[in-house]
């Protein structure tokens, strides 16, 4: 594989933090959509366990969908009474397992991770997104922004 110049890699990192603009007035202005390379995550952590569903694919996975404001503050834990209802995302579970797996130990099915992400970040977007909408939006962004393909395409241009 060809080496990618620092300039191209920098642009990809900027793309990684793609902002999804929100059109209403609320306690956030946009989202950071964050992806991770599972191998790098596991290499940088002392404990990393693959999900019960198996080793993630050889592609980037979702790390988070986080609301942010134009002054660079990130609201969190906006509604501690809004817990994740697994039945509301049941049709997304298989897709979440593949694209937003938990790499924490012990191995899990991802519900604990998604519950944490909903409680910490998703609740801050409830004025715009339901629980289902929050996770569905992350999955749609993952499908739309194929970082591995972007890197491959950038490597072919050098």
Automatic annotation (TrEMBL):
Residues 1-24 form the signal peptide. GO terms for biological process: RNA catabolic process. GO terms for cellular component: extracellular region. Pfam families: Ribonuclease_T2. InterPro entries: RNase_T2-like (IPR001568), RNase_T2-like_sf (IPR036430). Gene3D superfamilies: Ribonuclease T2-like. GO terms for molecular function: hydrolase activity; ribonuclease T2 activity; RNA binding. Keywords: Endonuclease, Hydrolase, Lyase, Nuclease, Signal. Belongs to the RNase T2 family. PANTHER family: RIBONUCLEASE 3, RIBONUCLEASE T2. This is Uncharacterized protein. It comes from Trifolium subterraneum (Subterranean clover).
């Amino acid at each position: 594989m060809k080496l990618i110049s620092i300039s191209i890699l920098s642009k990809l990192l900027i793309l990684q933090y793609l902002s999804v603009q929100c059109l209403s007035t609320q306690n956030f202005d946009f989202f950071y959509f964050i992806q991770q390379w599972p191998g790098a995550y596991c290499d940088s952590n002392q404990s990393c366990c693959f999900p019960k569903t198996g080793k993630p694919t050889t592609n980037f996975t979702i790390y988070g969908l986080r609301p942010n404001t134009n002054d660079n503050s990130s609201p969190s834990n906006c509604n501690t009474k809004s817990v994740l209802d697994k039945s509301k995302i049941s049709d997304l579970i298989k897709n979440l397992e593949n694209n937003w797996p938990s790499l924490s130990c012990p191995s899990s099915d991802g519900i604990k991770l998604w519950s944490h992400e909903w409680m910490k970040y998703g609740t801050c977007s409830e004025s715009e997104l339901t629980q289902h909408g929050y996770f569905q939006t992350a999955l749609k962004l993952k499908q739309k922004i194929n970082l591995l393909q972007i890197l491959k395409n950038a490597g072919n241009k050098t």
